[in-house]
Write a structure and sequence with these properties.
404 residues; alpha/beta; four-stranded parallel β-sheet; Diaminopropionate ammonia-lyase
Length: 404
């Protein structure tokens, strides 16, 4: 019998677009631009689609037809889906810089083979991060030959900061929460002449975050191509909204009126998207935003992600940390399907589904014929935190050793 802590807050979205409305946000995100991202990312060393894992035992226990989980833990060896976004945005930024300097649009191969090393070695990219995005930006900077500085806020673990530094980036720790570190990165970039590669957007800053989100759409397109029939429900983790918006946009454009119901899941301490839906406008959550779901500890919606979610989302959920921890242990145990290494933020969508009450499931139209899709956006990006929650190291789980 599944026993999950209940959803803390459930907010149906009063602004959701009707089922017959065509996808309206192609100027921000589109499947055509997604094809461009897939073509480029497909040339990077180590590229391979990530698994789409069926969880039949969990589906039976949950009373639905199927549950599928897109396992992003192995993406480019970086542990999360963020490898797709930050590095892609770095590549796009550097290609634009080369085009400006040389008067022609270069091919991505010219980045990979170091042809423009002399031009790029004085370029510095920077960003703020909870861990995974900064790791992707640092990896992209190393792969393409520019310098990198990453800002981490007070509660980012040493393990996550160390993983970024190991890729050759300079790491600067700031006071305050994630949103404070975003502001500090922007301030320092202006002062030093660096280029911000952020996964969130604000007035006057949208091109790079759009590239980040378009990179994320690669995992959505992989999933669409692997599914025999579309899901009926998407459960997507929130944060600033980039992942959720990228996936929701791809499925809306692909399936039109048959698009799945989209549910956005956030930590109860950092539910800026849910509160924005309730207020009918972007809302900022103040405070330290402390949660084990470190990648979702964001208090301000992304300016370009929010309008997509405002139109696409069916509902918004806030969940307690205990729900994420329980989902991590469940996936590691092998009771849901094959044992999976799933990090704290990576399980948020699944944890949101498993925490619903009977009344909330009914409100979302979830029943025996429902097909649930979740995106496991990270693996054990903080190995010690993972071991403390699950009780075993990630390597043991990954080897398929089922807990007894």
């Amino acid at each position: 019998m599944l026993r999950f802590p209940p959803v803390t807050a459930f907010t149906p979205n009063p602004a959701m677009a009707g089922p017959d409305q065509p996808y309206p946000h192609a100027a921000v995100l589109s499947r055509a631009e997604g094809d461009r991202a897939r073509a480029m990312i497909g040339q990077w060393p180590g590229h391979a689609p990530t698994p789409l894992v069926a969880l039949p035992a969990l589906a039976r226990e949950s009373g639905v037809a199927e549950i599928r989980y897109k396992q992003e833990a192995g993406r480019f060896g970086l542990g999360s889906f963020k490898a797709l976004g930050g590095a892609y945005a770095v590549a796009r930024l550097l290609l634009r810089r080369i085009a400006t300097a040389t008067g022609r649009e270069p091919a991505v191969e010219e980045l990979l083979d170091g042809r423009h090393a002399a031009l790029l070695r004085d370029v510095t990219v920077c960003c703020a991060t909870d861990g995974n995005h900064g790791r992707s930006v640092a990896w992209g900077a190393r792969m393409f030959g520019c310098a990198c500085t990453i800002f981490v806020h007070a509660t980012v673990s040493e393990a996550r900061a160390g993983a970024i530094a190991a890729l050759g980036a300079r790491v600067i720790r700031t006071a305050g929460n994630y949103d404070d570190s975003v502001r500090e990165a922007a301030r320092m970039a202006m002062e030093q002449g660096w280029f911000v590669v952020s996964d969130t957007s604000w007035p006057g800053y949208a091109e790079v975050p759009r590239d980040v989100m378009q990179g994320y759409s690669v995992m959505a397109e992989e999933t669409i191509g692997a599914l025999p029939v579309p899901p009926t429900h998407l459960f997507l983790q929130g944060g600033v909204g980039g992942l959720a918006a990228a996936v929701a946009a791809s499925f809306w454009e692909a399936y039109g009126p048959a698009r799945p119901a989209t549910v956005v899941v956030e930590p109860e301490t950092a539910d800026c998207l849910r509160r924005s839906a309730a207020e009918g406008r972007p809302v900022t959550v103040e405070g330290d935003l402390e949660t084990i779901m470190a990648g979702l500890a964001c208090g301000e919606p992304s300016m370009i992600a929010w309008p997509i979610l405002r139109d696409a989302a069916t509902a918004f959920l806030a969940i307690p940390d205990g729900a994420a921890a329980e989902a991590m242990r469940l996936l590691a145990s092998g009771a849901a399907g094959p044992p999976l290494v799933a990090g704290e933020s990576g399980v948020a969508g699944l944890a949101g589904f498993l925490s619903l009450s009977a009344e909330q499931r009914a409100a979302l139209g979830i029943g025996p014929d429902s097909r649930i899709l979740c995106f496991g956006s990270e693996g054990a990006t903080d190995p010690e935190a993972y071991r403390a929650i699950v009780g075993r190291p990630a390597e043991t789980v990954a080897a398929g050793e089922i807990a007894r």
